[in-house]
Amino acid sequence: MKIFNTLTRKKEEFVPVQEGKAGIYVCGPTVYDFIHIGNARPMIVFDTLRRYLEFRGYDVNYVSNFTDVDDKIIKRANEQGVDSTVISEKYIEECKKDMEALNVRPATTHPQATKEIPDMIKMVQDLIDKGHAYEKNGTVYFRVRSFPEYGKLSHKNIDDLESGHRDEKHALKVSGESEKEDSLDFVLWKPMKEGEPFWESPWGKGRPGWHLECSVMSKKYIGGTLDIHAGGEDLIFPHHENEIAQSEAANDTTFANYWMHNGFLKINNEKMSKSLGNFFTVRDICKKYDPQVLRFFMLTAQYRTPLNFSDELMEVAKASLLRITNAAKSLNDVVTSDKKDGAAFDDTAKEELNSYIKKFDEAMDDDLNTADAISAIFELVKYSNTKIKEGITSEYASKLYETLKTLSDVLGLKCEVKEEILDADILALIEERTAAKKNKDFARADAIRDELLSKGIILKDTREGVKWQRV
User: Fold this and answer.
1) Which residue from 68, 204, 270, 284 has the highest number of Cβ atoms inside 10 Å of its Cβ?
2) How far apart are CA 18 and CA 156, in angstroms?
3) Is the dihedral of CA 181, 182, 183, 189 positive or negative?
């Protein structure tokens, strides 16, 4: 498998630190509100990466944090007159509900920043002891120029960064507000302000800086060197750049071998913004569309490609996903019919089926190209539909169904056919319609069919009885 490494700006063969294992750290959300669809893209993309590596036989240690101490959380808590933990705990649980709806598997570990403070204090002290950090009136700063490779991830030149900060540096010094040795230095530990949560430290009461949190949690739950560190491309600088500097300065080892960043999500070709009125949470979208449609949509483009969200594209995704689930249902109908006549699953059929699996694998091996992987699934869908029309045995249909289900599951898409328990009112309507037809009350039977259609249930009258499917 080849991965585009942001660090080297090229595709590289994935070679893990330990053979057969993969340690992945993905920056999670700051929990002060419901997650928005921009948050959902990395969750879905890197959950898919995890699923594919597991499909390939890797033992994956997947760690994704919750940032549960932050200015936004504190602001929301103060507005509502509650402790900040009330806000963070509430939205951690809401986030988990949305992740489950999107079929994003729980991480191996979901660390919370507030539960790892002692280790953060230790890392800060280590950096001070090594000369990479210094304290000024309760604030601890990282000395950026003490780390010669600063800028290697974002490919920014430190002199260019200094130039960009020159006016800011001058203004802060004139006003007497800057205590930094250098304007490029960033905060590791900040002193307590009135009404904020705090922890005791050697530098006084305070709380950790955002960048520090991920460095500590990733090391604790994965180890010295991560195989893959991932997140949105907006995190490359300064967040991930600062993580590298403080981690490698403190630990004297490579922080992460591969860096993966997903592209931005736009809404109708504009940046998502509350001021523009185009800010959507996952909950907002899932009121209109099944969460599986949103997941499918997020995978229709290769993860590094910018993605544009619109109602029109979601409708296309909905129709496309229905093609897959309908094909699965048709295959399952043949499987359950125990059909013995028709084409058998011979060596030729096996070879044809393997060709679709190969196309899928090749797409996913090429830097997680889910767009091409979906195309391979659609080729399998077309092949399956053709074979059903030509006539195949239940065994043949079973092989096709299991393959379709397996490949879809790698993408986190549910296509398996399960018996569903209908809402009692809907079940009663189906029974009433059956009775109406038996009594030749066709007007009532048609009215019930239309009513069920309005509820998203399509009925099909077959020799085996009434079959139905959701739309």
Assistant:
1) 68
2) 31
3) negative
In DSSP terms, 12 is beta-bridged to: 3
DSSP string covering 336-404, please? HTT--SSB---HHHHHHHHHHHHHHHHHHHBT--HHHHHHHHHHHHHHHHHHHHH-B-HHHHHHHHHHH
List of residues 6+ apart from 228 with CB closer than 8 A:
3, 22, 23, 24, 25, 49, 256, 257, 258, 259, 260
Structure tokens at 454: 């309005």
Distance, in Å, from the CA atom of 35 to the CA atom of 6, rounded to the nearest integer, reads: 26
Helix (H, G, I), strand (E, B) or coil at 267: strand
Q: What is the mean pLDDT of residues 39-45?
A: 98
Per-residue confidence (pLDDT) for residue 417, from 0 to 100? 61
3-state secondary structure of 251: helix
- What is the CB neighbour count within 10 angstroms for residue 129? 10
Backbone phi, then psi, for 141, in 5-degree steps? -110, 150
Residue 174 token pair: 């004139």
Closest residue by Cα to residue 68 from 20, 117, 8 = 117
Contact 55, 295 (CB under 8 A): no
pLDDT, one tens digit per residue, over 100-154 is: 999 999 999 999 999 999 999 999 999 999 999 999 999 999 999 999 999 999 9
Preceding peptide of 238 cis, ω within 30°: yes
Whole-angstrom Cα distance, residue 21 to residue 35? 30
Q: Which two tokens stand for residue 354?
A: 């393997």
Q: Where are the beta strands (DSSP E) in 90-172?
A: 133-136, 139-142
* Residue 451 pLDDT: 82
Q: Please return the burial class of 363, using the count of CB atoms within 10 Å of its CB with bins 0-12, 13-18 and 19+.
A: buried
AA identity, residue 62: Y
pLDDT at 374 over 90: yes
Contact 33, 221 (CB under 8 A): no
Query: Would you call 425 helix, strand, or coil by DSSP?
Result: helix
